[in-house]
Specification:
The structure is a homodimer. By secondary structure, chain A is of the alpha+beta class. In chain A, α2 packs across α3 and α3 runs antiparallel to α4. The longest helix of chain A is centred in the middle third of the chain and has 17 residues. Chain A starts with 7 loop residues before the first strand and ends with a strand.
């Protein structure tokens, strides 16, 4: 039996998806998306402590995060969860998925639940799919690097690959887009564009092709907003590579792309690891 | 097409296997092992530069490392590879597998080969299996953390899980054991013990059960040497957890287990990430 602890903390990288196709399924563990993105050193820190009543604190206030509440219920984990992040929420960085995955890892440790990593990733993925707030962030955030989602779903169903590279990433978030609204609409056009982008990236799994495939996806899927389009064009004109984070009104760029184009952007890097438990021993 | 570079460097964590079962197959990508181990922040740094003649430098001297030469040949990569590590070679830390995986990642980047991470992991795994020097280190080192190898083989055949924990790890290497000698002998007894250990760990995927299952494996597989057995008993008597690294005459312990028992041990931690390319941009 696993030991219980007084408190446990997990870090989960942010994840900016560049393109995706949606793959619904009756079994939420098999549902998900194909696509690719970058995981980020800017991420989400989740702390769990045993509590009498399950609750979630985000930005210092008790709040509702469906994916987190779903995963704690699935694990039968009565804990207080504190979610801290510098990433903007609703801007395409997978904060809800990260919070769910971090809550699963931290709750498992603090209560000594004795689940494996795959079981915790699966629980968080199912919670996120059932909340309708994401389809592929959790499995990408569990992997780290530059994840390519070849087959949808949680372990053992999903299949991941990666682009073997690392880079500085800049980003600029303009506003929210609702993942739930887009995913509940007609996703055929989007998914066709996502499959075409994945074919291009599998042929040449490099960061440069990831960025160009992502730009084409945003245009073909008709998700590009005028403000995002203008910033991407400015970055390209300055010799950089930029794309739109799905699903947020957010631009991300390789290296110093946004800075070079005169924007005041946040900077981080691709994250080498997936979600991890923090320990002192 | 991927860009080529003047030089590329990859870091691959060490990997101490605690227990395993051997699973030969005609297709080396499907051959491998089930089992579990810890990846280590002490690892192998591999640098590749374009060269007229393929060669490998280890510890400052040109040398032969079959797994590295195999993988470079498979990738048709004519590069000079420099392998640097503080880990002892032949002591059960997967240095040959790490060197092969690091060579694949670095050669891919320096020559702009445009392979995916799975393709590079598969090439390194096949090279290691064909060299006869390992069966499961490469896929574990590509994953990081505390990898549990549920199904043998490289992507997309193998299946991994993980123990969701992290820890300080101490180790003490006494001498060499030849992986090739053990793997070329009768592995039935060893594999039965390995399958029993995996069943125990899947039931309770924690570091504590990993260590106790590993100790039982070493004894039941009759791989325990008298010197290793004595040190493990000393660590246990001092209240710690220790096991034998497969396949080397090496003891590894959780936390300060070896130090507490009075040994002068090396110290590192479980490595949160798998093998990674190092970049400056």
């Amino acid at each position: 039996m696993a030991d219980a602890h007084e408190q446990a903390t997990a870090f989960v990288p942010g994840h900016a998806t560049g393109f995706f196709s949606a793959h619904p399924a009756d079994d939420p563990a098999r549902a998900g998306s194909r696509g690719a993105g970058v995981t980020l050193t800017d991420g989400v820190t989740v702390t769990a402590t045993p509590a009498d009543v399950r609750h979630v604190v985000l930005g210092g206030r008790t709040t509702h995060v469906d994916a987190v509440e779903n995963v704690l219920a699935a694990l039968d984990a009565t804990v207080a969860v504190t979610v801290e992040t510098d990433l903007p929420v609703g801007a395409g960085f997978g904060v809800s998925g990260a919070a769910a995955l971090g809550a699963a890892l931290a709750a498992n440790r603090v209560l000594g639940l004795g689940r494996s990593e795959n079981a915790l990733v699966r629980a968080a993925h199912v919670a996120e799919v059932e909340a309708g707030t994401g389809l592929g962030d959790v499995v990408a955030q569990a992997r780290g690097g530059v994840p390519v989602r070849l087959e949808p779903g949680a372990p053992p169903y999903g299949l991941l690959d990666g682009v073997p590279d690392a880079a500085r990433i800049e980003y600029l978030a303009l506003g929210d887009l609702s993942t739930a609204d887009v995913l509940s609409g007609d996703t055929d056009r989007l998914s066709n564009a996502g499959e075409a982008a994945l074919t291009a990236l599998r042929r040449d799994p490099t960061l440069s092709t990831f960025m160009s495939a992502s730009r084409r996806f945003a245009r073909d899927a008709e998700l590009l907003t005028p403000a995002v389009e203008e910033i991407i064009e400015d970055v390209m004109a300055a010799g950089g590579e930029a794309a739109m984070a799905m699903l947020g009104e957010t631009v991300f760029a390789l290296g110093t792309g946004l800075t070079d184009a005169g924007y005041d952007a946040n900077a981080c890097r691709t994250h080498p690891a997936g979600a991890t438990i923090r320990t002192d021993d």
